Amino acid sequence: MNSNSWKAIFDKYQIYNHNFDNEPFIISAEMIKQATKHFTKTNEREVRILCKQDSREDRPNVFAENNLFMLPTRNGEYAIVKGEGYIDIPEIQSSIKIYNSKLDFKLDTSLIGNSEMQHLDFAYASSLIRTFMEDDSLVLTIRGRKYTPKFTFNVDKQTITAESVQTEVDAGYEGRNQVVLIEAKNSSTTNTIIRQLFYPFRQWQQYTEKQVKTLFFEKRGNYYSFWQFEFQNQNDYNSIILSKSQRYEIISK
Questions:
Q1: pLDDT tens for residues 25-67?
Q2: Considering the entire predicted model, what is its pTM?
Q3: How many CB atoms lie within 10 A of CB 216?
Q4: If DSSP codes are grouped into helix, strand and coil, which group holds residue 66?
Q5: Would you kindly state where each structural domain of the chain is located, as residue ranges?
Q6: By CB distance 3.0 to 4.6 Å, which of 68, 118, 134, 180 could disulfide with 173?
Q7: DSSP 42
């Protein structure tokens, strides 16, 4: 969690005295490097590692104790924000649905390895993603890293502007009337930073008039799990709600 590094950063810039109720604290990569240059281990001074806080448990002590989290605002610049930055990924209580693959042959290569991407590709090849979204027109159109256009949003009463922030979508599918973006994991995740869903949502909603929807996906054991999240207000980071979820077991022919 790099708590010692962040304590040094907060001490150097007197971040403890900042009024987070009024506005975020903006910090640059160069500021982080200067405050941690005396640390000897790479993970104690590497900006990318220090700013990677993808779950509540990843936060350093000073963040957890003060209800803070981080958001990138541009290349080499971050906002330290007060508020709820994460969303729970709840256990799916409904019964497991047996899903018969739409493929009429077995995919041998899908059994090699255990990556989140191959599980997601297998779910798409079997037409399970189309089934969950009730949209037979979905085709794969988005994958990999891109940079966001400029957009502004709120976290509580704080206003944040992001521009040219790198995002990564594990897979995006476009249909006749909607675009579906998926964040995939390969572990039992209990919570995730909302940014991983919100930034791609805002990014792609500016490029299309179709409705953009966001999914969280995991393969847990033999089961393929989907959570669909929606943002009730695209300008409100915390307007995220869980709209539906389901677990499936895929039966191949």
A1: 999 999 999 999 999 898 899 999 999 999 999 999 999 999 9
A2: 0.94
A3: 21
A4: coil
A5: 3-83, 97-251
A6: 180
A7: G
